[in-house]
Amino acid sequence: MPLDIRKLLDGAQGRNYALHEEHVNPQFAKMLKAIGYDRCYVRAEGPYLWDEKGRKYLDMLAGYGMFNFGRNNRAIRDTLRDFLALDYPSLVQLEAPLLSGLLAQELKKRVGRGLDIVYLTNSGTEGTETAIKFAHGATRRPVILYCERAFHGLTTGALALNGCPSFRAGFDPLPPFAREVPFDDLNALEDALKAGDVAAFIVESVQGKGIFMPSPGYLAEASRLCHRYGALFVADEVQAGMGRTGRFLGIDYDENVEADIVVLSKSLSGGYVPVGAVLTRREIYDAVFSTLERAVIHSSTFGQGSLAMVAGLASLKEMDESHAIANAEAMGAMLRQGIEAIAAQSPFIKEVRQRGLMIGIEFQRPASLALRTAWDMIHRMNAGLFPQAVTIPLLDDHAVLTQVAGHHMDVIKLIPPLIIGEDDVRWFLEAFEAVMRDLRRFPGPVWEILTKLGSFAVASRTRRKVA
Hints:
This protein is an alpha/beta fold. It has helices at 5-12, 16-24, 26-34, 62-65, 74-84, 98-111, 124-139, 156-160, 165-168, 186-193, 218-228, 282-288, 306-321, 324-343, 369-381, 388-398, 422-439, 445-466, and strands spanning 41-45, 48-51, 56-59, 117-121, 143-147, 178-181, 198-204, 232-236, 261-264, 276-280, 349-355, 358-363, 400-401, 403-404, 411-414.
């Protein structure tokens, strides 16, 4: 008898946070409660979520950019359902799976750039680990360069390339091959490459932490510098890829980027089955998988699972048929124009950074004495607390799910599904305008919430010091 999943869910509804506090991640559950994000979602469709009380939310987070084509996309789901009915074999291991070959073929059509071999993974961080191994194996050099603020995953090798100290803290010693360079600084990159020991430079085409974009021509010139000094250029497209920026890849804004490795994941899964891909040049592959004896020198048990390959194929088809890339460009421009209009009336908004549906809104210290005093008070309590003054009321008062863009950053981030429409954009803009208007009231309810959160943060730091 199959598991009655509906009965199981109905019987446990509302116990999400109690179960997590007891069995899964107690600190994360407590953190969500502290910021008022402890919702129990029971339904999802497209760019929307519904909680157990029936309230509808606009999802501007998209599972950290995983649901480019919306949650529970019916076309992808129906393809997976049809495939399951075939009783098709998967993960025989000692075979060449048909579906992985078909997915690799489709990816090569879209990426181009002479990248003619595809290694299939389960996640973005596994793609980073693969790129590290390929770079070391192909160049026999020790150093991997990465940028400040970089995020390439949280497994040990990827963590060594993480530009955020908060993620790295407590996990020393990390692998010694990593070396940081400033983002968007060609002189610093060349100085690092001149040492002659660099295997590769890995960089996001748009940095996910804070939504920082390079200057025009930076990525192309960075790739040329890498090749001049014998290093590989690795483009991390895990979040920026698959159409999010209004192009298939973020590096597609500059056709002169000479990439040696491209890493994809997240929305390639359609939000259903984890899958990723690392595309590289044949000579790099040949240097790693150099003999018959080394044919499985880098491998993963679940790396070419049939269901994951189908999810990838269906996601690519849905991307094309839904015109998601063109919509990302159009809706991203509409959002930017609306946010900039609000910024003209807000003392808190410093800058809007946008490429497609990858948007960062940075805040600043206001000019008026009362608001400046409130800003300073909150920052003394916790350097990364202020953006919660935006994200919390967006969720509580307007049912819009967003996120803070990174540790100790006065930035919020919007990475909604690429299939949002004009009504969704207006929903967000009306909510955001109301929140920014309320922030001008000091004292006021939002500042009271921040003060409570700040006091909690100070108390937590004190407890840690005592311990």
